[in-house]
Amino acid sequence: MEDQDRSNHLREDDQPHLQQHQHASQPQASQTQANVKMPLVFSDGMVLQRNKPIPVWGWADANEKVEIKFNKQTKTVQADKDGKWTVNLNAEKAGGPFELIIIGKNTITIKNVLVGEVWICSGQSNMEFQVYKTMNAQKEIEDSNYPMIRHFGVAQDLSGTPKDDLKSAKWEVSNKETVGNFTAVGFYFAKKLYAELKIPIGIINTSWGGTNVETWTSREAFQNSPDFKKMIADVPVVNMDEVFEIYKKSVLDNIKKVQGFDVSMENEDQFKNADFNDKNWQEIKVPSLWENQQLGNMDGIVWMRKTITLTAEQAKKEAVLHLSKVDDEDKTYVNGVEVGTNNLWDKLRVYKIPANTLKEGTNVIAVRITDYSGGGGIYGDPTDLKIDFKDSNFPLEGLWKFNVIKVRIEVSPNSYPSLLYNAMVNPLVPYAFQGVLWYQGEANVLRAKEYKKSFPLMITDWRTKFKQGNFPFYFVQLSTFDEFGGNSQKGSRWAELREAQSETLKLPNTGMAVTIDIGNAKDIHPTNKQDIGLRLAAIAMNDIYGKKQVHSGPTYKSQQIKGNEIILTFDNIGSGVSTPNNDELKGFEIAGADKVFHSAKAIIKDNKIIVSSDQVQNPVAVHYGWADDDTNINLFNKEKFPASPFRTDNWEMMTANETYKVSK
Question: Around 489, how many Cα atoms within 13 Å sit in the side-chain half-sphere?
């Protein structure tokens, strides 16, 4: 299954994306003529930040003199003994296109350079989530011809030590051909900024699905943190190439043990044929994901075969093959003839078998399954696994033969702290930008309480590293998603994580977009990214760009207990608290000292909310939207910004004892 979203391609076994390519730390020793070299972020089509000094850096010969020209500026600098050089250009106004010229032994000319607003977009899958997957994607792609909006896509990479350049990355101008792969949240934010400011906008997209906050935080931040220094002291600095080789060997050895022979694509072209002899293949139960069986947690390519015996009468009939569902992609053959293929992991496979394909006696169904991430195999309802002969069915559930021919071997970016900071953030330091947009937290819900420390730590870490003061850091609060069925009765990890995000607003120059009203309880990746971009843009317009506006929903301020009622007051009420269509308020619960929450009646009066329940005579606390899935809650202000879920108590959280650990 596409799990929290990883990129959808099998990694080659040699894992080039893990190579610690010595891009620039000591390139000079090995090169005979050390030409001036620039980091990848300095390339054609780039956007530089306006109105603040512009750091430019690169590599040359030790002590070499380097000259930098931009617009009307010329600066010279001398490389240090390792060949590294950095220079600050003076602040520039928005404009362009210009050329940035770097002259050492050689000359590098970077073309089509704009100056405007630069924002870094980072986090997990909901930030990685591309424009082409969003609602009304076709319409959005049609309206994407914005030469002033540029997107810098950072390739996914991880490293045990800080790298000084990215694995690969490029600047692209927004148009119909390119925009489909941009970060959707970043693009819709940029589009709104451009509409308001009419100047160049650059978005730097450095994101990776399914990743936790700890992998985006530098080792030094943990070392300097009273909360985490004990944890990091036990974590070695790792060479990811070695980690990968050890991991690869253990995976391949394990599969060899299970199936009795090596993982190999040899003779694969014969596996679909009825006369291929699969007697030495092992058997696996179908329908059932192989994660639940002897293969365990494995992604890659697996052939599965089922041999059946049919009568002459059956072989003559019109027949339809039902394969239940296949996770992720199948190519299905009957007696060597391809009958169908599908790459949607949650769709039923129903394939018509061409006439004269089935034979009296032995027949073979062979399926080539590609599993990209998460679960894999033929799964679903056993009654959906059959050959349908109109008047009768031939069941196909039971034992099938299998052969693993390729394994996707990938070390998780969550396997050690700092892996993504090292490879996907450090190489961008000290690039000048305006602020950061961040959408992450799904991978931290099990440690929601600790996120109250780990998330602010990461923000402070980035601010320390980039040395641009407390730059704006705006984040997206998690939407609704019914992951564990959590609620006030049994506790909700998602509600606790949202609380940790709300509390992070204590840090200076932060902002949060609440998205509780535009989620999907059944999908961790809501497709309405447009409103998220607009809500983040509203914070930026208000805080940075001098266009004062309401940019937040009501936020809980205080409670007053009066008899059997609790009266709540709010900040950020805009022109008044309300519900859509003036419906009655939903999502409020109330509890007495016994800490048992009951559904409550809530009414709006003078922009305060009065909460009560017949079942609670002496109330002490209120919950609002305290559930993994809180789709039905409906408190807004009149400007249509939703209120963040909250609680008025500080009783122990269900994630109170969960802490970040690195498995050795």
Answer: 4
Cβ–Cβ under 8 Å, residues 439 and 123: yes
Give pLDDT, residue 556.
98
Q: Strand 361-371 and strand 299-310: pairing?
A: antiparallel
Instruction: Give the residue with greater pLDDT, 7 vs 564.
Output: 564
CA distance 457 to 461: 6
Q: Contact at 8 Å (CB) between 148 and 541?
A: no
Using DSSP bridges, classify how beta strands 646-647 and 621-624 pair: parallel, antiparallel or unpaired: antiparallel
Does residue 12 register a pLDDT over 90? no
pLDDT value at residue 345: 85
> Phi and psi dihedrals of 28, rounded to 5?
-70, -35
Residue 33 has what pLDDT?
54
Domains defined for the chain, CATH in brackets? 33-232+416-479+515-543 (3.40.50), 255-408 (2.60.120.260), 555-647 (no CATH)
Kindly state the average pLDDT of the residues 342-366.
95
* Nearest one of 397, 361, 399, 368 to 380, comparing CA atoms: 397
Contact 515, 531 (CB under 8 A): yes
- The larger pLDDT score, comparing residue 347 to residue 10, is at 347
**Which helix (H) or strand (E) segment is 201 a member of?**
strand 201-207
Instruction: Estimate to the nearest angstrom the gap between the alpha carbon of 212 and the chain centroid.
Output: 9
Give the DSSP per-residue string, 390-449.
SS-EEE--EEEEEEEEEEE----TTSSTTHHIIIIIGGGTT---SEEEEE--GGGGGGHH
Least confident of 18-22, 70-74, 409-413: 18-22
Instruction: Kindly state the average pLDDT of the residues 4-29.
Output: 34
Q: Are 48 and 118 in contact (CB under 8 A)?
A: yes
Neighbours of 461 (CB within 10 A): 22
Instruction: Report whether 477 contacts 165 (CB < 8 A).
Output: no
Tell me, rounded to whole angstroms, the distance of Cα 655 from its chain centroid: 22
Q: Among residues 529, 533, 520, which one has the least CA distance to residue 628?
A: 520
Give the pLDDT score at 5.
38
For residue 424, is it left (φ>0), alpha (ψ between -120 and 50) or beta? Answer: alpha
d(CA 422, CA 428): 10
- What is the pTM for the complete model shown? 0.84
Length of the chain: 664
Pairing of strands 54-59, 65-70: unpaired
Tell me what the mean pLDDT of segment 122-143 comes to.
96
Average pLDDT over residues 112-132: 97
H helical segments located in 278-397 = 312-316
Q: What contacts 320, CB < 8 A, 6 or more positions away?
A: 350, 351, 352, 353, 387, 388
Pure H helices in 160-311: 184-197, 219-223, 229-233, 240-259
At 58-109, the pLDDT tens digits run: 999 999 999 999 999 999 999 999 999 999 999 999 999 999 999 999 999 9
- Using DSSP's 3-state secondary structure scheme, residue 279 falls into coil
Residue tagged 């609380």 (tokens) = 499
Region of residue 489 (phi > 0: left; psi between -120 and 50: alpha; otherwise: beta): alpha
Nearest to 608 by CA among 553, 559, 650, 549: 559
Cis peptide before 430 (omega within 30 of 0): yes
Helix or strand or coil: residue 105? coil
CA nearest 422: which of 222, 631, 637, 586? Answer: 222
Q: What average pLDDT does range 412-441 have in this prediction?
A: 97
